[in-house]
Amino acid sequence: MMDALSVVSQLRDLASEPQNREVIVQDQGCLPGLVLFLDHRDPEVLLATLQTLRYLAELPPNIPTMKNELGMMVSLENLMARDGLSVDITALAQEVYDILCAPAKPVSHIPERERRKKSQFFINSSNNKAKSVTLHIQGLDSTDQRGLCEDALLKVKGVISFTFQMASKRCTVRIRSDLSTESLASAIAATKVMSAQQVVKNEAGEEIFIPLNPSGVKVQQNSALPDYLPEEEESPEREVDRAISRTTAKEDSSGNWLNAAASFLTKTFYW
C-alpha cells in the first residue's frame, strides 16, 4: 500500500540519479504531486519533498518548468514563513526557492574533458542496494569549501550522488550499502579545512550528531573514473541513453512504479 512518505521517498531516490530528473519533471503527475506535498502536515514528507525538488533543480532545463508549476513558488514561500518547522525544512525551502528564482546561468566554460569526467561518474554509478547518509560538515561555509567537498566525495568509490544544504551545513549523500560512513568522513577530513558528523534521529525523533572517526580509515579511490570518453566511440548523448538502461537494470519496473506513483498522486489529490 502506497502512502505519502513512501511515494515521495521513492521519488527522492529516483531523483538522486541525474539521468532520471528530466523524466520526473516531464511526468504529468509527479511535479504537481510534489507541489501538493509541500502542504503536507508530516515534517518527514516535507523534508523528503524538498530534497526531491532540490535534486530535480540540479538539472538547469528543469528550472523554468518547476518555477512555472502552479503553486510551486507560493508553497515554498509559505514553508519559509511557517512556524514550528525545523531549520532543515525552512533552510531547504529557501534554497530551492532561491535556485528557482535565480537568473539563468551562462553556459559553463569548464573544459569538455572535465565535464565529461564528472557526468560519467554519475552515469555509470549503480543504485543497487544504495542508502542515504546525512552529514553535518563543519567548515562548509562558502562555495569554495563546497567545491573542495564535492571533489573529495567524487573520489570515493561507492558514492552515487550528493546534494548540499548550505544554510544548515549539511550534505545528503547516496552511497552503496557496503560503503562505511567513516570513509566519507575520512575523505572530507582530507581537505584539512572541514570535518563531518553523521546526522541521525534518536528514539524520540530528535536529531543528534554522531561523531565519526576518520583516522585509520582506508578510502577506496574511484580509479574507474576516466579522464575522458573515447572520442571514437559513442557520443555523450548516446552514452547517456545506453547508461540509463544499464544503471536502472529494472527499467520497466521503474517506469511502472513512476506510473503507479503518478496514479496515486492523481487519486489522492484530484477529486
TrEMBL record:
Please name the GO terms that the record assigns under molecular function: metal ion binding
Asked whether the keyword Membrane is assigned, the reply is: yes
Q: What keywords were assigned to this record? A: Membrane, Mitochondrion, Mitochondrion outer membrane
Q: Where in the cell is it found?
A: Mitochondrion outer membrane
Q: Name one GO cellular component term.
A: mitochondrial outer membrane
Fetch the Gene3D superfamilies from UniProt: Leucine-rich Repeat Variant
Its function?
Answer: In association with mitochondrial contact site and cristae organizing system (MICOS) complex components and mitochondrial outer membrane sorting assembly machinery (SAM) complex components may regulate mitochondrial dynamics playing a role in determining mitochondrial length, distribution and motility.
Subunit structure, as described in the record: Interacts with mitochondrial contact site and cristae organizing system (MICOS) complex components IMMT/MIC60 and MICOS10/MIC10. Interacts with mitochondrial outer membrane sorting assembly machinery (SAM) complex components SAMM50 and MTX1.
Matching entries from PANTHER family are given as: ARMADILLO REPEAT-CONTAINING PROTEIN 1
Q: What is this protein called?
A: Armadillo repeat-containing protein 1
Species whose genome carries this gene? Seriola lalandi dorsalis
